[in-house]
Amino acid sequence: MRLETVAVRSGRNPAVAYGVDAGIPHVPSIDLSTTYGFRNSAAIADSMDALLEGEADAPNSVYARLHNPTVAGFESALAALEHADASVAFASGMAAITALLMVATSPNDDERYPHVVGVRPMYGGTDHLLSSGLLGTTVSWTTPDRVGESIRADTGLVFLEAPANPTLTMIDIRGVVAQANEAGSRLGRAVPVAVDSTFATPVLQTPLACGAAFAVHSATKFLGGHGDAMGGVVATSDSWARRLRQVRMITGGVLHPLAGYLLHRGLQTLPLRVRAQQTSAETIAERLKGHSGVLSVHYPGLSGDARERRLLVTQQRGPGSVLAFRVGGGASRAARVIESLQLITRAVSLGSVDTLIQAPALLTHRVVDHRDRAEAGVPDDLLRLSVGLEAVDDLWADLDRALGLADQSAA
């Protein structure tokens, strides 16, 4: 089936499509129960054992921290879009990444590989989690072309974002996977690669098809799409999914059923939203590129770089709807531009139906040391724009006016 059909139909009871039973709800139900009753003790024990082993479901859900049918529907739908065996949902993107780090660096009870190879830039929260060593891990920061030489005997994971947050740098996932596989051959074991694909969504990129072991999303962003549901999700193989469910069960980072319902609903319009937003972003990026008040624009394919053009054909099915641009004048001018906007929402996050703007150095990447930010290409005057579904000419009028007003207020 085509992507649009999968987005609408996946994760639902298949009987609904054929009208097998008039009593089956057309829309997936929201199951808010925290616990599930039982009659037979042996049967409930079997269900408990299955869930403790990381099974995706069981005849009885037992307890909401172990399994929820509404969340399971969202997980099934996202796995279908990512062409994955399974996906595991969490309360937030950071909860998902935390669980992923825990399972990758301790793949079973007898092994521990606490070293992570990270490719900057990436979301500030993830950067901080890796740098802080909070989970008992260490990190080596490197560039995409030097991943292989950074892998050590104790490396458990390679983590990157594609496109990168907030510079929109495109990374050759297959190239990174090839380096990890070569290093894994020397070590006699696999070194998995995790790709945060939040900016691209499954509409534009499927990391598992490029050889990655994990595709990670902050579901709060494009997957939900309306700024009203928080969640995170990891798409992967059945074996990794089992371990992720076990960690989720123990740590309690579960996705609330209402959020699961809203995220599942968001997937149904995801292809339409992403493509419409992308069209507007392309127009705005081109206009910003020619604006006298803009130093540079970061947007896949805009620079004419041959490598980016190739990846837009072989890896990513379009440049997306997030872009970044430098306004010059440091943090003070960046603040004046943002504060002069009247239509565009001044807020963190991205992927919503409304257009959002923020300064990474001020907000999403503030937790990252300023020297590391600068080295990763995140200066104080960089603004990140997530283009929504408003009329593109209205958005441009607001941006153009704000860029002009910022200079007037400084005079």
Tell me what you see in this structure.
The protein is α/β, with parallel strands linked by helices. It has 2 domains: 3-31 and 68-268, Aspartate Aminotransferase, domain 2; 271-410, Aspartate Aminotransferase, domain 1. It contains 16 helices and 12 strands. The chain has helices spanning 3-9, 15-18, 41-52, 69-82, 93-105, 124-132, 147-150, 173-187, 201-204, 238-251, 257-268, 270-289, 306-314, 330-339, 370-375, 392-410; strands at residues 86-90, 115-119, 138-142, 155-161, 193-196, 214-218, 232-236, 296-298, 322-326, 345-346, 356-358, 382-386. It has a 7-stranded mixed β-sheet with strand order 1-7-6-5-4-2-3, with helices on both faces. It has a 5-stranded mixed β-sheet with strand order 8-9-12-11-10. Strand 5, helix 9 (201-204) and strand 6 (214-218) form a beta-alpha-beta unit. Helix 4 packs parallel to helix 11. The longest helix is centred in the C-terminal third of the chain and has 20 residues, at 270-289. It is globular, with a radius of gyration of 22 Å. The model has no long low-confidence stretch (mean pLDDT 94).
Jot down its keywords.
alpha/beta; Aspartate Aminotransferase, domain 1; 2 domains; seven-stranded mixed beta sheet; five-stranded mixed beta sheet; 411 residues
Identify the strand order in the major beta sheet.
1-7-6-5-4-2-3
Q: Average the pLDDT over all residues and give the rounded result.
A: 94
CATH-level-2 architecture of the largest domain: 3-Layer(aba) Sandwich
Give the CATH class of the largest domain.
Alpha Beta
Gyration radius, rounded? 22 Å
Helix content: 40-55%
Assembly of the depicted chains: single chain
Distance between the termini: 58 Å
Number of domains: 2
| Uncertain segments | none
How many β strands by DSSP?
Answer: 12
Fourth CATH level, the homologous superfamily of the largest domain:
Type I PLP-dependent aspartate aminotransferase-like (Major domain)
Largest sheet: 7 strands, mixed
CATH topology of the largest domain: Aspartate Aminotransferase, domain 2
Which percent band covers the strand fraction? 5-15%
Number of helical stretches of at least 4 residues: 16
Task: Name the structural class.
Answer: alpha/beta
